[in-house]
Each structure stands twice: as structure tokens, then as C-alpha cells.
Design goal:
Length: 233
């Protein structure tokens, strides 16, 4: 079966997911997480990819990024893989690829779903019952976006900058988004999108993507666009 192509557009956010082989762990101790983060930061700078959100779970990772040039995402992921996998294999006496096939990705309509995807990513440890609040999990972007601790390789999206006039206002508005539970329909739609490679957005966004790429992208069912509410998303 031929590989399903992945599509990117300059300036359009992308949700990336990559799992460990057979869902086995890819991180075992703090040094592993820190090593992956280091190469992510180096690669993001090298290939001019803005990282807005991330979470490193025990056996998979999520990223929300915006490339200046669409092809740079593939180069970024190759850059990380060619460094982190040998590190992992050497350290733990393993061999072969650490990943379960190719990473999955979906384009994201920023004005409709950007913050919803950020919440989806940063609430992963909460949904997995690893922590009670997202700020308690060390290996995610929540602390940076909430103003608790700065992470040097992260870049705020322009929509984040519009959350408030001051840095404190923006941090407060971002934290307010995490009050209440996340809509189960949004969770399902986001999962369907990254699993199938379907653009996450309304019909106008999907049609615009297909016009720019001149081909059909993905096959997930159509769904309503999420609203950018500050509370109770």
C-alpha cells in the first residue's frame, strides 16, 4: 500500500503526532525528555519552524507548529529522529527505529481551532491521569504559555499575542481557557484529523487548502468549527 502523503502550507499551523514503536516508551527518564527537547529546539531554529505547543508523553509526542516553508516540517522531524533515535538505542542497548511508522499530521485553521488544539495537547497528561492540573506536568508547553516558566524554543502565535495588551493579561487569558472540561466532540474531531491527515477546520478552510494544494486532502468527516471562547472550551 502506498504511503499516504502529508501536506503543509507556509504560515499554516500543523498538529504533529508521533508514537513509539508498538506504543512502547520513547522516554524513560528526565535526561531523555531533555535530550529530545534540545534537538527539537535546535531543529526548529535551523529549519525556521515556530513551535507553539508540545507535550512529551511516555510513548508519544504532540507538537503544534507553524512552518515558514511547508517542506521544513519533514526536515525538522528527520533532524530530530536522526539524533534522538541513535541516542536512545545507544543508551538502552536497543536497535532499529523507535517510532511506529511515520509521524501523523494535520493542518489547523488557526482562527477556529488553534487554542482548542493547544488545550488538547497540553491536557494530555490530565486525560491520562498523570496529573490533576496541566501545570503540574513538566514536559509540556503549558508552563510557558501560562507564564509560569519560560521555554526558550517556543514562539507565541499571533493569535496568542492578541489575548491581552500586556504579558500578564495574555497569561491570565490563556489560563482561563483551561477552566472547565474540554468538549468531547472537539477531542474526537481533533483525533480524527491527525489520524487521517484531514485539515482541521470548517468547510471554507478545507476547500481553501485543497485549492492551494490542487488535490483532495484527508477523508475525516466534516464537523463544526470550535469557538474561541476564553472559558469552558
Amino acid at each position: 500500500m502506498p504511503r499516504k502523503p502529508r501536506y503543509y502550507l507556509p504560515g499554516v499551523p500543523v498538529h504533529i503526532v508521533q508514537r513509539g514503536h508498538s506504543r512502547e516508551p520513547i522516554f524513560f527518564e528526565a535526561q531523555d525528555y531533555a535530550t529530545y527537547a534540545y534537538w527539537l529546539g535546535e531543529g526548529a531554529q535551523k529549519y525556521e519552524v515556530a513551535i507553539h505547543a508540545f507535550v512529551f508523553m511516555t510513548n508519544h509526542i504532540h507538537l503544534l507548529v507553524t512552518p515558514e516553508d511547508g517542506i521544513q516540517i519533514s526536515r525538522l522531524m528527520q533532524f530530530i529522529g536522526r539524533r534522538y533515535v541513535p541516542y536512545l538505542n545507544h543508551k538502552y542497548g536497543r536497535s532499529g527505529s523507535a517510532w511506529e511508522g511515520r509521524y501523523k499530521a494535520s493542518l489547523v485553521q488557526d482562527d477556529a481551532y488553534l487554542f482548542t488544539v493547544m488545550r488538547y495537547i497540553e491536557l494530555n497528561p490530565v486525560r491520562a491521569a498523570m496529573v490533576v492540573r496541566p501545570g503540574q506536568y513538566r514536559w509540556s508547553s503549558f508552563c510557558h504559555n501560562a507564564g509560569i516558566r519560560e521555554i526558550s524554543f517556543l514562539r507565541f502565535h499571533s493569535l496568542y499575542e492578541k489575548l491581552g495588551k500586556t504579558r500578564e493579561d495574555r497569561h491570565r487569558a490563556y489560563c482561563d481557557m483551561f477552566e472547565g472540561t474540554m468538549d468531547e466532540g472537539d477531542i474526537k474531531l481533533i483525533r480524527e484529523s491527525w489520524q487521517s491527515g484531514t485539515p482541521l477546520g470548517n468547510d471554507w478552510f478545507k476547500e481553501r487548502v485543497q485549492q492551494r494544494l490542487q488535490c483532495k486532502v484527508g477523508y475525516a468527516r466534516r464537523g463544526r468549527p470550535a469557538k474561541n471562547r476564553v472559558k469552558g472550551l
